[in-house]
Every structure is written in C-alpha cells, then in structure tokens.
Specification:
It contains 5 helices and 10 strands, in the order αββββββαββαβαβα. It is α+β, with helices and mostly antiparallel strands and about 170 residues long.
Length: about 170
C-alpha cells in the first residue's frame, strides 16, 4: 500500500532553496530566511519531542530582501504530470502573498513538477489570475502548460542548483 504521509513532501525542493539562499547571502545578493510555523510541544520522552501541534497556520515558507526588494514566497511540489492542484496553496497563504504584493513587495510560488524534473517561479499576480480562471471554469488545478507559459523556468546558476533569484529578476523586470 502506498504511503499517504506528507511529512517529507517538498523536502528536496526546500534543500535546494536553502542552499541557494545561503549562497545568495554569502555573495551579498539577498538575505532570505525560511519561516517555520510555531509548534506547541505536548509530549517528551528521553529528552525527545514525541507529540505536539502547530499553534497557528503557517505563513509563506520564505521571506527576505533581494537588493532592497522585499520577497515572499512559498515552495510547492506536485507529482502530477498535467497540472498543479490549487488546493496545494492554502487560503491563508494566498492572503499573505497578496498582502505582500499590496505593500510593494514581490511574492511568488516556486512550483516543482517532480515527474517532469522542472521547477517554475510563478509570480503571485499570474497565480491569482489562474485562480480566477479556475473558479470561472470550475476546475481545481492549473494546467502544466499554463504554468510553463506564465511562469519562469528556474535553472541552475553559478554554483547554484536552483537559481530562483535570477528567475525572479527576469520576471520582475
């Protein structure tokens, strides 16, 4: 039987982003940090946490500054070959990304299509437009081809496996 655990879903993508962020900071290009949701620990055994729960809904995964531009983004992975399920982005995350844009920042999603081995940066404005179109058509996912067209393929850069910052500057301009 196939495991339904989501515990490590997106872990590889996060590792690539964290490595890129460390390189950007070392080079003085950006300071971007991963936000972890606050956890209330309710159980210990042998000095190890055995039980707990999230105290609140998590904010988008990453926030920071890139050359005086405030950035905020969430990283998502899907095994689907044909589309990105919009339920992968929670309402509170959409709200936070929108607020960031409204305040003059740049927000986006980094979406990894595992089966295609491709990762795209989808600006929030493009994602929001896709959401509206999905609601009108009463569909629950964004077609892969739409993300290819409206997003920016993220490739490797100079000693960076996933150079999201270059893609961000290209779509931001």
């Amino acid at each position: 039987m196939k495991s339904r655990s989501h515990a490590n879903r997106g872990k590889t993508l996060e590792i690539y982003i964290d490595q890129a962020n460390a390189t950007y900071q070392q080079r003085g290009q950006a300071v971007v940090v991963r936000q972890h949701p606050e956890v209330k620990v309710t159980g210990f055994k042998d000095k190890k946490v055995t039980d707990g729960f999230y105290k609140s809904k998590g904010a988008p995964d990453y926030i920071g500054l890139a050359s005086n531009l405030p950035v905020c983004f969430d990283a998502k992975e899907t095994k689907s070959e044909t589309s990105f399920p919009i339920d992968n982005v929670h309402q509170h995350q959409i709200k936070d990304l929108k607020h960031w844009e409204d305040q003059g920042g740049f927000s986006f999603l980094i979406i990894r299509f595992v089966t295609h081995k491709k990762t795209y940066l989808l600006p929030f404005k493009a994602f929001n437009q896709c959401l509206k179109e999905c609601r009108v058509r009463d569909v629950k996912s964004i077609p892969y081809q739409v993300i290819q067209q409206r997003g920016k393929l993220i490739t490797a850069g100079s000693n960076i496996t996933l150079d999201w910052l270059t893609a961000a500057w290209e779509v931001r301009e």
